[in-house]
Specification:
With 235 residues, this protein is α/β, with parallel strands linked by helices. The protein is built from 8 helices and 12 strands. It has helices at residues 13-25, 36-46, 62-70, 86-95, 107-129, 160-171, 179-187, 195-209, and strands at residues 5-9, 29-33, 50-53, 77-81, 99-102, 134-137, 140-143, 148-151, 154-156, 177-178, 219-222, 226-229. The chain has a 5-stranded parallel beta sheet, sandwiched between helices. It has a 4-stranded antiparallel beta sheet with strand order 6-7-8-9, covered by helices on one side. The chain has a 3-stranded antiparallel beta sheet with strand order 10-12-11. The longest helix has 23 residues, at 107-129.
Length: 235
Amino acid sequence: MNKPMILVVEDDKAVRNLITTTLETQDYQFHTASTGGESILEAISHKPDIIILDLGLPDMDGIDIIKKIRTWSNVPIIVVSARSEDRDKIDALDAGADDYLTKPFSVEELLARLRVTLRRVQYDYIKNIQNDSVFINGGLKIDYAAGCVWVDEKEIHLTPIEYKLLCLLAKNVGKVLTHNFILKEVWVNALPDDTPSLRVFMATLRKKIEKVPSNPKYIQTHIGVGYRMLRIDEI
């Protein structure tokens, strides 16, 4: 892949300058927009690899921008917003955002989130040119055709629900999935108050695939929001 290009959508000049300066120090290419209208035009004309998006723009709510972009593009979107309530995070992620960073934020955390998202972009790129019937992430291997799972070359026996959960996370590796999204995808007719059941199944899944379930390396919990499968570097 060529050097990734990032679109920064932020109306606060000081925050925008902080983000672009950070990107410059890491040799990222970037474009900027300060309104929702500009952001959509930039996304169409420059086709960025990642969008960093503020929700509180002067002409349009960021949630609406996410929804508009999702009608024609799957470009990863990292929300950077002062809105810190779980409901705001869930709404953004359900609308199609890939990650959510709350202001004020550290430069180190922003760069870490970018690295996670870029690994997903690169993984998707490679997956598009390779046979994707087998998923490999560190010591985790899923053979979709056979319906089998291995961890460190040892076959792991999962229940049908555990297997569906693992496959859903694997197919969205690097992306935060909300409780509501997971429930709808795995159980179809599930209700929001079924979240405790989801936590139980996730706990049993972790016991089977994680060496230390209390300190998981594959499945990360976003408290009050959902879960994300992390992309392991040693692959």
